[in-house]
Specification:
Blueprint lengths: L19 H6 L3 H8 L18 E2 L10 H18 L11 H14 L6 E3 L3 H17 L9 E5 L4 H14 L2 E5 L9 H5 L6 E7 L11 H10 L3 E5 L18 E4 L14 E4 L43 H17 L1 H23 L5 E2 L11 E5 L3 H10 L2 E2 L1 E3 L3 E5 L7 H19 L1
Parallel strand pairs: 1-11, 3-4, 3-5, 5-6, 6-7
Antiparallel strand pairs: 2-8, 7-8, 9-10, 10-13, 12-13
C-alpha cells in the first residue's frame, strides 16, 4: 500500500460546537475532507469501538483492539490450547518469541532476523539489557573505567528507576542529562555529558511527554565515538514512526507492544540486541528458556545462541496473539503510510490548537517541526488536570502528564481527523466552562 498524500491542514472558521456530543456528531468540513481523502480511513473499521461515540485520544498509551483479535483469541483457546494442549509447545508456541520478534523486526524495527525477541515486561527487559551492557563494558571484575550510565532527566520513570537501581547494584554513577519537558535530547546537549567514563546511554526515541523525536543515527554515532553503548527505548515510537536499528548501528533496544502495536493491556515487551554483541552480552536473569537445551534439564546453565539466550521463563503466548495481528496489518499497510498519516494528524491538531485553544491560554509543549515530532501532541494549561477529568466524564479520552499537560495520542490506523477535531473542540468547551 502506497503512502497517501495528505493535504496541509487548513482550519475551518466554523464556530466550535456547543457540546461534546455535537462535536462527535458533526466535525467541521476540513476534517471531513481530510478523512475523505485518507486512503487509510477505511481501516478504522478493523478496530473495536472505532464507530462508537467515544473520542479516543490515548492510543499512545493503549491501542484499540483489532476486531480480528477477538476471533483469533477465541480460536486459539478452542483449537490450539483446548485442542492440542501441551503438544502446542512443539507445534509453534516455544518458537513464537523469536518468530514474532523477527516479524516485528522486519516490519517495524529495521532489524534483520535473529536479533529481536518478544517476552517479559518492558521493565524486566530493560533491566536485562542494561545490566548485560554494563557488565560487558566494565569487564569480568566489574572495575573498568567506564563507571557512568547516562540518562536524561525527562525519560520515562521506569527507565530512570531501572538506571538508578543498576547503578547502585554495580557501584556506578548516574550522569543526568537535563532536558526540557517540552523538548528532548539532541546531540549537542548529549555531547556535554559523554566521556571516556560513559558505559551505557539510555534514551527514548520519542519523549513520552513532549513527543520529541530524537535523531537516533546521530546520537548513536556520538555515543560510539566515546566508546559507549546506547540502549534505545522505543515504547512511544514503534508502530508510529520509521525505525532503522540495523542501519543506524543501534546496540540495544526495548519497547512495549500495547501502544501503537495494539497488543492489549500488559502485552509482553520486545528486546533487540545487535548480532555483533550477542556473544559478548551475558543474560543476567538465567532461566530455563534461555538454555541451549531447555528440556535437557541439565545441572548447569549453558546459554542458547542468538536472541533465545535473552529469554528467561515460559513465554506469555496468549499475550503475543493480539500483537501478532497488528504486526500483520502493519506489514500490509507499510510504516511509511502510517508515518505520513501520523504527521498529518499531529499537524491538524497543532493548527486547531493555534486557532481554537491558544486564545484560551493553551500552549503547545511539543515540537512544531514534524521531523522532530513523534505521534502525539502535548498541550499545556494551568488547569489541564481538571480539563482531563471533565473530558473523561464526557467520553473524550486524552491523558494527563505533569506539568499541566494534556497529551493527545493519535494512533494513525484507528484515529480520524474528525475525531481529533472533536477532541480539540471538547477541550475548548471545558476550558470555557471552567473559566465561568
Amino acid at each position: 500500500m502506497q503512502a497517501p498524500a495528505y493535504a496541509a491542514p487548513v482550519t475551518s472558521p466554523t464556530p466550535s460546537p456547543t457540546g461534546p456530543d455535537d462535536a462527535r456528531r458533526a466535525a467541521p468540513s476540513t476534517s471531513r475532507a481530510l478523512d475523505g481523502a485518507d486512503a487509510l480511513e477505511p481501516l478504522r473499521d478493523l478496530f473495536v469501538g472505532s464507530s462508537s461515540g467515544v473520542v479516543y485520544l490515548d492510543g499512545n498509551s493503549l491501542g484499540r483492539p483489532l476486531r480480528a483479535t477477538a476471533t483469533s483469541l477465541a480460536a486459539f483457546v478452542t483449537e490450539q490450547w483446548g485442542g492440542r494442549l501441551i503438544r502446542g509447545w512443539d507445534e509453534g508456541w516455544s518458537g513464537l518469541p523469536l518468530t514474532l520478534g523477527d516479524d516485528l523486526g522486519r516490519v517495524a524495527l529495521g532489524a534483520a532476523p535473529g536479533q529481536t525477541w518478544v517476552g517479559d515486561s518492558t521493565t524486566v527487559t530493560l533491566y536485562k539489557l542494561l545490566r548485560a551492557a554494563v557488565a560487558a563494558q566494565r569487564g569480568e571484575e566489574g572495575d573498568g573505567d567506564r563507571d557512568e550510565i547516562v540518562i536524561d532527566t525527562d525519560n520515562f520513570p521506569t527507565d530512570r528507576y531501572v538506571v538508578e537501581g543498576v547503578a547502585r547494584e554495580c557501584g556506578m554513577t548516574v550522569r543526568w542529562l537535563p532536558v526540557s519537558t517540552s523538548a528532548g535530547v539532541d546531540v549537542a546537549g548529549l555531547a556535554e555529558v559523554l566521556s571516556e567514563r560513559t558505559a551505557v546511554v539510555v534514551l527514548s526515541q520519542v519523549a513520552y511527554r513532549s513527543g520529541w523525536l530524537a535523531d537516533v543515527a546521530a546520537i548513536t554515532a556520538a555515543v560510539h565515538d566515546v566508546g559507549g553503548l546506547v540502549l534505545w527505548d522505543l515504547c512511544h515510537s514503534v508502530g508510529s514512526v520509521p525505525i532503522e536499528l540495523d542501519a543506524h548501528g543501534v546496540d540495544l533496544a526495548v519497547g512495549c507492544t500495547y501502544k501503537y502495536l495494539n497488543g492489549g493491556p500488559g502485552s509482553p515487551a520486545f528486546g533487540y540486541v545487535a548480532r555483533r554483541h550477542q556473544e559478548r552480552l551475558a543474560q543476567p536473569i538465567q532461566g530455563w528458556m534461555g538454555h541451549a537445551d531447555p528440556f535437557a534439564m541439565g545441572p548447569r546453565y549453558a546459554p542458547a545462541s542468538g536472541p533465545r539466550r535473552y529469554l528467561s521463563g515460559t513465554p506469555p503466548i496468549l499475550g503475543m496473539l493480539a500483537m501478532r495481528d497488528m504486526v500483520a496489518l502493519l506489514d500490509e499497510v507499510g510504516i511509511a503510510a502510517v508515518r505520513a498519516k501520523s504527521l498529518a494528524l499531529t499537524e491538524h491538531v497543532i493548527a486547531l490548537t493555534d486557532e481554537r485553544l491558544a486564545p484560551l491560554g493553551v500552549t503547545l509543549a511539543s515540537p512544531r517541526d514534524g521531523d522532530r515530532r513523534g505521534g502525539h501532541v502535548t498541550l499545556t494549561h494551568p488547569r489541564m488536570r481538571e480539563v482531563v477529568t471533565a473530558l473523561w466524564q464526557r467520553d473524550v479520552l486524552p491523558d494527563y502528564r505533569d506539568p499541566h499537560g494534556l497529551r493527545i495520542g493519535l494512533s494513525p490506523l484507528s484515529t480520524s481527523f474528525a475525531e481529533a477535531e472533536a477532541g480539540v473542540d471538547a477541550v475548548a468547551e471545558v476550558l470555557r466552562d471552567l473559566a465561568g
